[in-house]
Amino acid sequence: MQQGTAGRDSPRVVTFDLFSALTDSRRGAAAAFGEIAAERGWSVPGEELYDVWDRHNKEQQRRAVAGARTSFRELSLAALRLAYEQLGLRGRPEADLDLLWRSVARWPLWADVAEGVAAVAAHASVGILSNVDDELVVTTRAYPLVDPRWVLTSQRLGAFKPGPAIYLRAARAAPGLVHVAASARDVRGALEAGIPTVRLVRPGHRVDPGGPAPTVEISDARDLPGALAQLGRAGQDSTRIWNG
Predict the structure, then answer these.
(1) What is the pLDDT of residue 66?
(2) For FRET with 215, which of 35, 159, 207, 242 sits at 20 to 30 Å CA-CA?
(3) Which residues 6+ apart lie within 8 Å of 231 measured at CB?
(4) pLDDT at 115
(5) Which residues, in sequence order, are bridge partners of residue 153?
(6) What local confidence, expressed as pLDDT, does residue 206 receive?
């Protein structure tokens, strides 16, 4: 995919959250967890396994200290152990996480993603801002749609969402950054760090009522060019990176 060319004085970069804005991670991971449950002879639905693991995973990420020597895999493994303990399951966490990670290549993108990302890429460089490790992000269906230079992972930045450090480090790496987020914690984290943010509404995600309200919300990624122009007209820093 041909990426948009940044201006001489300020790169124009729009990042997306990987596992909510771009990928239907619940559907993809629940299917993988369903396969694990069937193999283990468990009666727990894959959706329930995913939901419990996801809650623990997000809590592990929230508690991770910026600069600490940990990884998305290590946090996810700790979360899986906690999920199995909570559900009373005798699994094999390391082997099961390997199965889950191998399934990531099959996790579906939302239907509007390919066209929406292409529409943004006509005007700006497009990247990903995510808590994942580098070796995992390259296996996703979203990775071929973006510019690898702007794939900003926790491994690269040394911090995890929703803490402010990952957003501030991303902004330093990509001046003029605008972020497209869907989950409550990502929308709040980006806005509280001062990053111009478009909220892309996805099923199962809501705005955190205790956080700042996004200036611009859309329900279809194909509407992003107009949304980014609207963000600029609202007087935010995106005027430096988006001309509509």
Answers:
(1) 82
(2) 159
(3) 178, 196, 198, 215, 216, 238, 242
(4) 98
(5) 130
(6) 87
* CA 213 – CA 30 distance, rounded (Å): 30
Q: Is residue 235's pLDDT more than 80?
A: no
Token pair belonging to 34: 């369903």
**Residue carrying the six token digits 């914690």:** 185
Tell me the two tokens of residue 194.
């001062």
Helix axes 164-173, 184-192, angle to 10 degrees: 60
Residue type, 201: V
- Whole-prediction pTM value? 0.90
23: which strand partners? 109
132 Cα distance to chain centroid: 8
Q: List beta partners, residue 128.
A: 16, 151
Q: Are 60 and 79 in contact (CB under 8 A)?
A: yes
**In the structure encoding, which two tokens stand for residue 111, read together?**
């239907």
- Which residues touch 181 (CB under 8 Å, ≥6 apart)? 17, 20, 21, 187, 190, 197, 198, 199, 200
Specify the residue for token string 């991971």: 29
